[in-house]
Design a protein that fits this description.
By secondary structure, the chain is an alpha+beta fold. The chain has seven helices and twelve strands. The chain has two domains: about 5-95, Gcn5-related N-acetyltransferase (GNAT) (Aminopeptidase); about 110-275, Gcn5-related N-acetyltransferase (GNAT) (Aminopeptidase), CATH 3.40.630.30. A twelve-stranded mixed beta sheet has the order 1-2-3-4-5-12-6-11-10-9-8-7, with helices on both faces.
Amino acid sequence: MSGYEIISEKDGGASIIAVEDGNRVAKLNHMDWESDFFGKRFGKLEIPRAGPHLQEAAFDDALKSLLLAGDKSRFDLIEIDLDISLIDAAWLFEDNGFRTVDVKVTFLTVMKKSEIDEAPPDSGEICFVSADMKERILELTHQSFTDNPLFKSRFTNRRYFSHAESRRYYAAWIENHIRDERSLFAVMKDAAGKPAGYLIYKRTGEYQGKPLYRGVLVAVAPEHRGKKMHRALQSFVYRQFSEDEVCLTFTTQLANLSAMRNYIRPHTILDHAEIVLYRLRGEAR
């Protein structure tokens, strides 16, 4: 790399770019939803041509200048999702103030609805979510995620998000899916009619010509775990697909071993993994 310059796009520098010989080397984008929701300025760092040049001193100089411009534009938190194949370049970002907060692992599987065995619940019933279930669904969510010390996620990392912010984020996530007609939001009711678990899938596009459904979130009350409720919920949701052959994708955190074990099954492939790093404003080693 022979030289670079830092330029801004959009009003207020919402997008800051490091350019070398007319090519974009790195780009810092403003994350609108997260910034509005948390009341802080969030940015996402993208490296369009990730490769060997990441190890070059000139790239390090460009990155430092880009991050300095981000600090001046008052980005409070900057995220980068680094493909696992670039793990040997993680030090470069760590030396510029980034810290690892997550390792995301994504699985893919192709399935046929006609080959799915029905798995009815041992007791109670499964139905779609309704607005009157929201409070109980939120209770299950906080019990499984935000208030569970065994659950690990960047959104429950207290260095970056307070407990109140974590609860508010997960509550908004659930409320959005309750309202979203594209979501397949299944709920398991116990024998008394009280929601005891849920599973959410959402159609997100296509993969190799097949409809692609993304697994969003699953939660089961502690007293109902180990009763194959997850399997019963999956069977119910899968049989709601309008297509017979579909592709399913699931993303989880490497630290959540129970979820990893659930997804490592025959005919499921590990598609990719990413290291998620965060940098607070002005932070550098």
